[in-house]
Amino acid sequence: MTEYFSACQVLHGDLYEFKDAFLADTTQEDIGKFFWVYLNHWLSSLWIVAHAFQHVLKLQDRIINRLIDENFQNLSAYRNVTYHYHRLPNKRIQARARFMASGRLNWAEELHSELERYFREYLAHLAAFYPEDGQEE
After folding, report:
1. 137: pLDDT strictly greater than 60
2. Does the pLDDT at position 136 exceed 60?
3. Do the domain assignments include residue 137?
4. Is residue 58 part of a domain?
5. pTM above the 0.90 mark?
6. DSSP state letter for 135
7. 35-93 residue pLDDT tens
8. Are 113 and 9 in contact (CB under 8 A)?
């Protein structure tokens, strides 16, 4: 599961890192296209991690499970319009607009941050059980 979250982290990091670089040299239209591409794929990868966390692996973390419950349906709709073809853009535009309403992007940032905390703690626990070669516990 950590490999899925690693991909999610790359998309999230690139979303903000490269956006600032583009501001200097590109038109607003190009920035918008770039931003939406990364945003769409980051949120969709966040859906994969949230879905596996709660519905497949059934992991327990009070904060993460509460966050997932708050907006999972909205995140699902967003992911679906990103990865399922729609001949007309209306459904895609509406789903994205609904998601962006009411601070859901802030919710996604909070969920991402809590997942990052969870996996950092998980990897630290693993490291305690499996110290690197040549190091003593």
Report:
1. no
2. no
3. no
4. yes
5. no
6. -
7. 788 899 999 999 999 999 999 999 999 999 999 999 999 999 999 999 999 888 888 88
8. no
Q: Which domain holds residue 7?
A: 2-129
Mean pLDDT of the chain: 88
Identify the burial level of 124 via C-beta atoms within 10 angstroms of its C-beta, where 0-12 means exposed, 13-18 middle and 19 or more buried.
Answer: exposed
How many domains are contained in the chain?
1
Residue 135 lies in a domain: no
Q: CA 15, CA 39: separation in Å to the nearest integer?
A: 7
Contacts of 68 (CB under 8 A, 6+ apart): 50, 53, 54, 111
The candidate with the shortest Cα–Cα distance to 83, out of 44, 120, 132, is 44
Task: Mention every residue, 6+ apart, whose C-beta is less than 8 A from residue 114.
Answer: 61, 63, 64, 67
Would 18 be classed as within a structural domain?
yes
CB 43 within 8 A of CB 72: no
pLDDT score at 52? 98
